Amino acid sequence: MRKGIFTLVLSLISVIAFSQQKSEISKMSYSQIDTLLRSVSHKNLSITERMNLYSKMFMGMKYDLKCVGDGKYSIYEPWPLVNFQGINCMAYCEHVLAMSISDNWDNFFDNLQMIRYKDGIIGIKTRNHYTMADWLPENNWLLEDVSAEVGKEYVSAVTRTISHKKFFKSKGIKYLDYVKEDRTMKVDYIPLADFGKITGNLKTGDILVLLLKNADDIFAAHMLMVMNDHGKKLIREATSSVMKVIDTDIDQWIQYKQKHKSDKYMGLSVIRVKENLNKKNEIILPWKIKDLKQ
């Protein structure tokens, strides 16, 4: 009996200790991250190879829905512009992407804002809130939708209307000047039921967007990344289901979603770093992004 209680206590101590562990990147100061970025930028890696490296350094980081906002001078969401202590699914992808195209802290910070905001202009109305309607179109200098290419004969499409006015009203924002007009758009995706058939077409660094099934005014529910660990393809994500950043075998992840979440999610879109930019030692300077947009 005593042995059983002792074993249980040890198990609980182990669980508590694990829950208190910090991710590798959260232990670093901004100065140390600057040194890291400078060092990795000279390691002859492509952007997606650096994504694989940097994303792993977030493993175990706590999930925090409100981890980032528009800075302390913002009226509505005065949360940090950068955060290495907590992360949500979109901020995770943004931080990893910005690190992977940068060679020092200053360029990372500026690139992060270019990814998060329209033309890098910080504010709640210029933030790329909607993944498929804002985030991807505003980042087409770096990323492209390859759902049709990856999904091939399994690809489908869905049309919905996005309303920023409705979105901002729900946040209690009274003044709706400078807000985008409502727009109806079509998005390609691979049905969840067929996604296991196309995993061979996915590449390291691909960003997957999980689409809601029963919705008419929003597409995306979650963002996650395809990564590689010793030749094994993984789903790497900041998830509210376990409140931290985790890796899951891609086949197990798909099977679970198909079995337990098919009533909630219709499928996934695939976003990829543009091939012409995904070269060894490629660094994108913030002030050069306007040239890539032309």
Order of helices and strands: HHHHHHEHEHEEEEEHEH
CATH topology (fold) name: putative xylanase like fold
Number of strands: 8
Shape: globular
* Biggest sheet statistics: 8 strands, antiparallel
**Can you tell me the CATH architecture?**
Roll
Residue ranges: pLDDT <50 for 5 or more in a row?
1-19
Overall mean confidence score, pLDDT = 94
- In angstroms, what is the radius of gyration? 20 Å
Strand percentage: 15-25%
Helix content: 25-40%
Q: Please identify the top-level CATH class.
A: Mainly Beta
Based on secondary structure, the structural category is alpha+beta
Distance between the termini: 72 Å
Number of domains: 1
- The CATH homologous superfamily name equals putative xylanase like domain
Question: In DSSP terms, counting alpha (H) and pi (I) runs of 4 or more, how many helices?
Answer: 10
Short description:
The chain is of the alpha+beta class.
Account of the 3D structure:
- This protein has 294 residues and is α+β, with helices and mostly antiparallel strands.
- It has a single domain, classed as Roll (putative xylanase like fold).
- 34% of the residues lie in helices and 20% in strands.
- Strands 1, 2, 3, 4, 5, 6, 7 and 8 form an 8-stranded antiparallel sheet that branches.
- Strand 6 and strand 7 form a beta hairpin.
- Helix 3 crosses helix 4 and helix 4 packs across helix 5.
Write the layout of secondary structure elements.
Layout: H1 2-20, H2 30-40, H3 47-56, H4 89-100, H5 105-116, H6 131-138, E1 143-145, H7 147-151, E2 156-162, H8 164-170, E3 183-191, E4 207-212, E5 220-229, E6 232-239, E7 244-249, H9 250-260, E8 265-273, H10 289-293
Antiparallel strand pairs: 1-8, 2-3, 3-8, 4-5, 4-8, 5-6, 6-7
